[in-house]
Amino acid sequence: MSNVVKQSFLNVLSVIGAFAIGALNTVVLYPRIIGVQFYGIVIILLAQSNILQPIFSFGLQHTVIKYFSAASSTKEKDKLLLFSVLLPLCIIVPSALFFSFYYTEISTYLSSKNPGLAAYIYLIFVIAVTTSYFEIFYSWSRVQKRTVVGNFMKEVYQRVLIFVLLVAYFMQWLDFSGFINALIVGYVLRLLIMMGYSLWLYTPKIHFEFPTNTSSLLSYTLLIFLSAFGASVIIDIDASMLGKLVEEQYVAYYKVAIFIAAIIDAPGRALFQIVSPMVAEALNKNDRLGLKQLLRKSSTNLLLVSGLFFVLINSNIHDLYALIYQLNAKEGFVLAIPVVFYISSTKLISALIGCTNNIITNSKYYYVVPFLSIGSAAAVIGLNLVFISEIGFVGAALSTFLVITVFNLIKVAFVWWAYKIVPWGKDSLVILMLITVLLVPFYFWQLPFEPLVNMVIKGGLTSLLYLFFSYQFKLSDNINALMDKGIKKLESVVRNTDSN
Q1: Contact 487, 345 (CB under 8 A)
Q2: Is the pTM of this model over 0.85?
C-alpha cells in the first residue's frame, strides 16, 4: 500500500505541476501570443482528435489492465500485449486510406463554420493515432504498478511542449503552420518515449499465435471500445459541437473555463492511474472486502481533496477572472463563469463516486458499460443542441452537468445491486457539509485589494479552515496520517531551530 501512496503522491505532484504549466499556457500565453481565433482552431482540432482516439485504440488499454493479472502464464501475458499492439492496425490502416481519399470532403465539412480549420485537418488523424498507441503502451507500465513516468508524459510533457512551441511562435521562429507541425512531432516523440519505457519494464516475447482467450478479449474490447468512445464524446463533444455552432472566441472562453474547473480532477487523475489495476486484481481474485475498501477510501479521499479545490476555485472565481482580464485585456472570458461552476460541480460529483467506474469496467458486468456511455453521450449531444441554441455556449456545460450527475447515480446504484457496496459513508455527508459551509461565505466575501492579493488571502484562510476541520473530524485516515507526518517534520524543524 505504501507503493500506492507514494506513486499517487508523485502523480498528484505531476498533475498539479501540469495544471500550473497549463494555466500559464491557457490563461496567458495562448490568448496573448496566438490569439483567441487561432487558439479556438487548436482546441477544435485536438477535441476532434480526442473523439477519434478511442476508435483507433479500440479499448485495448482497458483490456490489458483487466486481463493481464488474470493471465495464466507469462506466455499468455506476452500474447495479450502483442495483441493490444496489432489489433488497432486493423482500424487505423483502412481509416488512413479513407482519410487520404476523402481528405478534401472531410476538411470542407469540418471547417464549414470555421474556415481556418481546413488547412490543418491532418492533425486530427495523426494526433489520434499517436495518442491511441501512447495509451496502450502506458497500460503496459500500469499493470507493472509503475505509473509515475507515464503519468508525467501524459500530464506534464504535452503542456511543456505547448509552452515551448508558444514561446517559439512568440519569437517568430515558427508561424502557425509550423506550430501545428511541431505539435505533431512532439506527440510522436512522446509516443516513442512511452514505448521505449514500457518495453524496458516488460519486453514480451513474440509468439505467432492468438491468446487462448481471444474470443473473450475481442468481446470485452468491443464493448469497452463503445464505452470509451461514448466517454470521449462526453469529454470533447462540447468543444467539437461549439466549433460547429459558435465562433472561435467562444470556444476559447469555454476552454479556459473548462481548464479552471478541471483542476478539481487532479487528485482523481493521479489516483486512478494506480487504483484501476488494483480494482481489476481484486475482482479477478474475488476479494470483496478489498474491493469495498478501495471503493470507500477512493471516494472519501477524492471527495475531501477535490472538495478543497472546489471551494478554492469557486470562492475566488471573480478575482480569478479579474486577474485573467488584467493579463489579457479581454472582457469576454468572464462570460464563462457559469461554465466553471457547472463543470466543477460535475468533477466533484465524479470524485464522490470514487472508483465506481473502474469496478464496472473490470467486472463481469462490463457489458453494461457501453449502454451507459453511449446513453450518456447521446443525452449530452441532444441537450447540447437544445441548450446551446437557447442560452449559448454555457448550455454545453449545463448539459454535461445534468447528464454526468444522472448517469453517475445510475452507476452507483448498479454497483450496489451487483456487489452490495456503496462509495459513501457518514464521512461523505460531513465532507459535503464542510464544502458548503466554507463555500457560501467565502464566495460572497469580496476583498478590496488586487485580485492576486485577494486570492492569496481568501485561499490561505479557506485552506487552513478546511484542513483544520477535516483533521479534527478525522475524515480520512490516509490524509490525517500524511498531515501527522508533516506536523512531526515541522516540529522537528522548529526544535532544531530553537536549539541552534
Answers
A1: no
A2: no
